[in-house]
Design goal:
- The structure holds two protein chains of two kinds.
- In chain A, α4 links the parallel β4 and β5.
- In chain A, α1 runs parallel beside α2 and α3 packs across α4.
- In chain A, the strands form four sheets. An eight-stranded parallel barrel of chain A has the order 1-2-3-4-5-6-7-10, surrounded by six helices. Chain A has a three-stranded antiparallel sheet with strand order 12-13-18, with no helix packed on it. A two-stranded antiparallel sheet of chain A has the order 14-17.
- Chain A is built from ten helices and 18 strands.
- In chain A, 25% of the residues lie in helices and 20% in strands.
- Chain B is α/β, with parallel strands linked by helices.
- Chain B is built from ten helices and 14 strands.
- In chain B, the strands form two sheets. In chain B, strands 1-2-3-4-5-6-7-13 form an eight-stranded parallel beta barrel, surrounded by five helices. In chain B, strands 8-11-10-9 form a four-stranded antiparallel sheet, covered by helices on one side.
- The chains are: A alpha/beta, B alpha/beta.
- β8 of chain A pairs antiparallel with β9 of chain B, so a sheet runs across the interface.
């Protein structure tokens, strides 16, 4: 009898909107994380009202999935007003945990909303097991590790702690220790730790010596400007290491990302984790999983700190080394199997003669060339140029694949 | 009672600072502490502690690095060494180091110092409940917020009144990675090289950047100088004033520290005037390194201007 891993890690997917929450769960997320209307770091994401949260929790719990709420600002005076009520409301709605960084908010959550699970945010840069143990004693159930922690370090932590560990495995990253950066405050008067980060690290800077004010030594200036821009993380090729290290939750970045991104990361990582855990000794990384992730990639990808300190290849310098070759063109609203006609809501311009690929939960894919197209009044058209435009076209049924 | 905290770059400078009447020397080694003018190994540290105590002054040791497993295993031994020296205080910013300190009941007082993240009284008071004796307040807290923060503090808060403000720490060697990419200038990325970056279309800006064993550090374009605002600190009872000499070496740093000691004495003798403030500040400007500028940082900023 071959080995089977029953204690599978959770696949934790970002959900910037109620729609994305459903998509993430439909595509295989064990848990999603969302933002409330206050105390979170993504003030520009479409955050959830309490009513939205309640609907989301109901949907998630029906599907055995969990919902976490990020409340990971670092508060200034006055910012914690009402936080006790906020955390109690999360608890009463049935939110499964709050993700918090500021000790002031941690204390409020623990003392004023007993029963609400609290996770330490990656913003706290937890990087050693004594830190994990400190926060566990404070009543936290889980620690999201700093993104500077490697696989070998996680293995060592497991010998010294039994608190749950969550680790980022995919998506955009801070170049610095999260939380320990106020470039945005100083350069753009936007507080990085209160949802205002202007991503100044990704700017192009001049680098120089300056023995006297105004006397910049330009000798260092190269064709390529100095920057502090990390490529994105992608751990799809290392799922076995993460599972064997006992990471409880595999976290994917991106509450600002699209439905296409959310559905794809949930789909791919669900498949990889299930595949490994079902038969770890005969596991094979499928090239199509990697290909899928490249379709949604906005930057090159690397493994961050998991296997050592990142070098220049882990930063964005020079020309893009690989570009995504796919554009998300729309969402399937309906499929008429008898007529073999699909109804699609447009998200990017496409038209007759374009090759399109359909994908769905459980990693189903199918490609075809668009041969015809009608607008919502039944008029034949060549292109679908308008955002959110509803169109139909012929999509021959695939007998071997239940794509729709 | 105003307390002047200064950062020696050598044993000789520590002696000069003590002779001048500094109340507290802040130093350490870079294996455990962040962004120090000099890394004092144990023998040198022992010497400075003895000098300070003989002069009736205090020593604060930096244990405020972000620790990974490889270093946290050495922290308890270091804490016990510091306790054996009867070091008066340490700074700590990693909850793991606090865990070791409390679990092992090491007899050391600590100030909470997690760099840019220490921004509210409620957060500082959380650490006070975990036996912190004080905290280092982040530079990003404007005066209008300090007016609410200071009265709510259960332990004293330290303010940077002079010196460079750290605004970024990365675990990555960002300068070396860049040099490796452009394949040039690879000789040095340390603090002594004196590298700066300027923001796009703002050539007048000059953010210091360097690498050490704790990663890459970036500092605000201008250093802090709160000489013109000291009356406001005194009014709020924020009486622990640190002068960071990391980018202001040598005798000029000692002389600048002397200006703040004059300020302290004037406050304690009720002789502080705006004319004296202007005079001391003019002297300070004349002593600045040729490649540094100062301003009051976030102190005067309207909190509502920060998004």
């Amino acid at each position: 009898m071959s080995r089977v891993i029953t204690n599978k890690p959770e696949v934790l997917v970002p959900a910037g909107t109620p729609e994305k929450l459903k998509v993430a769960i439909d595509y295989g997320a064990d848990a999603v994380y969302i933002g409330g209307e206050a105390y979170g770091l993504r003030t520009r994401a479409a955050n959830f009202s309490y009513d939205d949260m309640a609907v989301g929790v109901a949907y998630a719990h029906e599907h055995d999935a969990k919902v976490y709420v990020t409340a990971n600002i670092v508060a200034h005076e006055g910012n914690t007003d009402g936080a006790g009520e906020f955390f109690r409301t999360l608890r009463d709605i049935g939110i499964d945990a709050a993700i918090v960084s500021d000790p002031a908010l941690i204390e409020i959550a623990i003392t004023e909303a007993p029963g609400l699970a609290v996770h330490l945010s990656t913003q706290a840069s937890a990087a050693n097991y004594e830190t994990l143990n400190f926060w566990q004693k404070e009543g936290l159930e889980r620690i999201v590790l700093g993104r500077e922690v490697g696989i070998a370090e996680i293995n060592e932590m497991q010998k010294h702690t039994d608190v749950e560990i969550e680790a980022f495995i995919h998506g955009a990253m801070c170049i610095g220790y999260s939380g320990r950066c106020t470039l945005s405050n100083h350069m753009s008067q936007r507080d990085a730790n209160r949802g205002g980060c202007a991503q100044n690290c990704r700017w192009k800077y001049d680098l120089f010596e300056m023995p006297t004010l105004g006397d910049q030594d330009s000798e260092i200036k190269a064709d390529e400007a100095f920057s502090m821009s990390a490529v994105d993380m992608c751990m799809i090729e290392h799922i076995p290491d993460l599972v064997e290290a006992g990471v409880n939750s595999l976290k994917i970045e991106g509450r600002m990302k699209t439905v296409h991104y959310v559905s794809t990361v949930a789909n791919v990582y669900r498949k990889a984790v299930d595949s490994y855990c079902a038969d770890p000794d005969n596991y094979e990384l499928k090239p199509e999983w990697v290909d899928e992730l490249w379709k949604i990639a906005q930057r090159e990808m690397s493994t961050g700190f998991y296997y050592g300190v990142p070098d220049q290849d882990d930063e964005l310098f020079g020309k893009r080394r690989k570009r995504p070759q796919y554009t998300f063109i729309g969402e399937v609203l309906a499929y008429d199997a008898e007529q073999q006609i699909v109804t699609v809501q447009q998200r990017n311009n496409f038209g007759v003669a374009d090759t399109v690929e359909f994908y769905g939960p459980s990693f189903r894919h199918h490609q075809q060339v668009v041969a015809d197209m009608w607008d919502d009044e039944g008029q034949a058209i060549d292109r679908a140029p308008h955002a959110m435009q509803i169109i139909t076209f012929t999509a021959p049924h695939q007998s071997n694949q239940e794509i729709f | 009672m105003i307390e002047i905290v200064a950062t020696p770059e050598s044993v000789a400078q520590a002696k000069a600072l003590l002779a001048l009447g500094v109340d507290n020397l802040y130093l350490g080694e870079d294996y455990f502490g962040l962004r120090l003018p000099h890394s004092f190994e144990r023998a040198e540290l022992t010497e400075v502690v003895a000098l300070a105590h003989a002069a009736g002054k205090k020593v604060t040791v930096a244990v405020n690095a972000i620790f990974h497993n490889d270093r946290i295993v050495h922290v308890l031994d270091y804490l016990q060494f510091l306790a054996s020296l009867k070091v008066d205080q340490i700074t700590v910013g990693d909850a793991g180091a606090i865990n070791l300190l409390l679990e092992n009941q090491v007899p050391l007082a600590y100030l909470y110092d997690a760099s840019v993240t220490v921004t509210s009284a409620r957060q500082i008071n959380f650490w006070a409940k975990h036996q912190a004796q004080g905290a280092v307040i982040a530079q990003e807290v404007p005066y209008e917020e300090l007016k609410m923060l200071a009265p709510a503090l259960q332990v004293p808060g330290e303010m940077l009144v002079f010196g460079a403000t750290a605004i970024h720490q990365s675990g990555r060697p960002l300068v070396d990675n860049y040099f490796d990419f452009v394949k040039a200038h690879q000789e040095k990325s340390d603090r002594k090289r004196g590298l700066f970056i300027s923001a796009p279309r703002k050539p007048e800006t000059h953010y210091s950047i360097y690498e050490d064993r704790n990663g890459t550090h970036v500092f605000a374009s201008n250093d802090i100088d709160l000489m013109p605002r000291l009356d406001k600190l005194v009014e709020l009872g924020l009486n622990r004033w640190k002068l960071d000499g990391i980018f202001c070496p040598g005798d000029d740093y000692v002389t600048i520290t002397g200006l703040f000691i004059q300020a302290k004495n004037a406050f304690e003798n009720q002789q502080w005037t705006s004319a004296l403030a202007a005079d001391l500040d003019a002297q300070l400007h004349a002593l600045l390194p040729k490649n540094r500028e100062v301003d009051t940082g976030f102190f005067d900023i309207d909190p509502s201007e920060v998004q």
